[in-house]
């Protein structure tokens, strides 16, 4: 019997039917730096069969050996037509390839009656493909990595906690979520590249949209909106990234909460903005050739080496100022914060752990038949969020509740001069 579809508030197809039975076979596509021992090892332990795909069999086998998982998964070469021939009904295709490749891989999965999971943002194309597969019982999980992924879980947990402790009455709400992969020991440049520098520079060229002071704002050059954030005795620089506003509906704030601030952004070590002064000047100039040349120079000058250790810091904060009894919502009456702080090791980088483990858990939920057909963005219900966070805790990814420092709306990073 086909699943019955409905439409959620975003116009994305949801379904009240049951997912097509999972086979227990997982196709993990891609072996880049975000494929870590924790996530892949979890699937090798719990799935009936795991197939690791890379450009060649030799590369896949080498990566598996490097992760200490040699012989625990099959290895295949991602040659034309190979994945299409191997995927079966009820399998799960988990993509670690760049986001631009996800529509193609989802199409392959859907054509074979398989489910799909990835860590990247939901695009209109992915949402439409998920809607088409929902009636056949196919599950599509997106935004199930670190950012997006764990950040969503912490946001949902904070909103739910505030609902319980404060209620849904009129209040002024301020929400921020900042995440960054940074060197465990910062150097003068305050950054090391674990992925293509051109991608980092391209992200800086993307205007950021967010709420500040109750007003929708756009930062054409996100680095010019840097502020300081104090977390656990350290000071970081943070700035808005991409378009924050679509996530307001996703996080389910009560209608009576008036959002004065809503920012999802990037976190860097203090001093980053000053250290990158020359980078910003080139990016602001807009010359594509110069930007690509700069990316090549940065890759040579600031690579992540085997001796380097990375660090992931994710900080999510929500404050509420009740407006009842004549209050104007100016003074915070409730404040909550969540912190994930992970340092990498010789066995596994912090980024691989924080991206790969949530994706692997998402896959296990699909294999267990726990998710409904259609599009799922990590977890959203209180029970599912709690289950995900507990599963991550059991595998060493522990988040802590923290008492955020008082808001510093005027605390901006040092001005490195006009870029």
Give a short overview.
By secondary structure, the protein is α/β, with parallel strands linked by helices.
Task: Outline the secondary-structure elements.
Layout: E1 5-7, E2 13-15, E3 25-29, H1 37-46, E4 49-54, H2 57-66, E5 74-77, H3 82-86, E6 92-95, H4 102-111, E7 115-118, H5 124-134, E8 139-142, H6 150-166, E9 171-183, H7 197-204, E10 208-212, E11 215-219, E12 227-231, E13 234-240, H8 247-250, E14 257-269, H9 272-275, H10 277-285, H11 288-301, E15 310-322, E16 334-343, H12 350-367, E17 374-377, H13 382-394, E18 399-402
Parallel strand pairs: 3-4, 3-6, 4-5, 6-7, 7-8, 8-17, 9-14
Antiparallel strand pairs: 1-2, 9-15, 10-11, 12-13, 13-14, 15-16, 16-18
Helix pairs in contact: 1-12, 4-5, 6-13
Give an overview in words.
The chain is an alpha/beta fold. 32% of the residues lie in helices and 27% in strands. It contains 13 helices and 18 strands. The strands form four sheets. It has a seven-stranded parallel beta sheet with strand order 5-4-3-6-7-8-17, sandwiched between helices. Strands 12-13-14-9-15-16-18 form a seven-stranded mixed beta sheet, with helices on one face. Strands 1-2 form a two-stranded antiparallel ribbon. A hairpin with a 2-residue loop joins strand 10 and strand 11. Helix 6 crosses helix 13. The longest helix is centred in the C-terminal third of the chain and has 18 residues. The protein is globular, with a radius of gyration of 22 Å. The chain starts with a strand and ends in a 17-residue tail after the last strand.
């Amino acid at each position: 019997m086909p699943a019955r579809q409905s439409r959620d508030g975003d116009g994305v197809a949801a379904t009240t039917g049951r997912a097509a039975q999972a086979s227990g076979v997982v196709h993990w596509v891609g072996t880049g730096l975000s494929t870590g021992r924790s996530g892949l090892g979890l699937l090798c332990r719990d799935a009936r069969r795991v197939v690791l795909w890379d450009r060649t069999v030799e590369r896949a086998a080498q990566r598996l050996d490097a992760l200490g998982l040699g012989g625990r998964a099959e290895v295949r070469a991602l040659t034309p037509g190979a994945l299409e021939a191997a995927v079966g009904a009820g399998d799960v295709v988990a993509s670690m390839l760049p986001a631009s490749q996800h529509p193609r891989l989802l199409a392959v999965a859907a054509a074979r009656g398989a489910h799909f999971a990835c860590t990247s943002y939901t695009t209109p194309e992915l949402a439409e493909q998920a809607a088409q597969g929902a009636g056949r019982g196919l599950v599509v999980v997106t935004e199930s990595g670190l950012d997006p992924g764990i950040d969503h879980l912490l946001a949902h947990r904070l909103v739910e906690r505030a609902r319980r402790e404060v209620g849904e009455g009129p209040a002024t709400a301020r929400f921020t979520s900042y995440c960054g992969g940074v060197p465990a020991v910062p150097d003068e440049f305050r950054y090391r590249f674990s992925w293509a520098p051109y991608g980092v520079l391209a992200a800086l060229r993307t205007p950021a949209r967010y709420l500040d002071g109750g007003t929708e704002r756009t930062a054409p050059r996100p680095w010019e909106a840097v502020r300081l954030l104090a977390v656990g005795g350290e000071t970081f620089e943070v700035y808005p990234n991409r378009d924050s506003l679509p996530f307001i509906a996703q996080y389910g704030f009560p209608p009576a909460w008036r959002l004065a601030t809503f920012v999802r952004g990037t976190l860097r070590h203090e001093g980053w903005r000053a250290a990158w002064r020359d980078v910003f000047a080139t990016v602001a100039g807009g010359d594509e050739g110069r930007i690509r040349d700069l990316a090549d120079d940065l890759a040579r000058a600031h690579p992540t080496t085997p001796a380097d250790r990375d660090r992931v810091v994710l900080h999510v904060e929500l404050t509420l100022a009740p407006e009842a009894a004549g209050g104007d919502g100016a003074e915070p009456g409730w404040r909550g914060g969540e912190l994930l702080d992970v340092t990498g090791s010789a066995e596994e980088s912090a980024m691989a752990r924080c991206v790969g483990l949530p994706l692997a858990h998402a896959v296990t939920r699909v294999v267990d038949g726990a998710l409904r057909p259609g599009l799922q963005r990590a977890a959203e219900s209180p029970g599912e969020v709690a289950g995900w966070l507990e599963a991550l805790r059991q595998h060493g990814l522990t988040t802590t509740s923290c008492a955020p420092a008082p808001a510093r709306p005027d605390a901006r990073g040092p001005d490195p001069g006009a870029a």
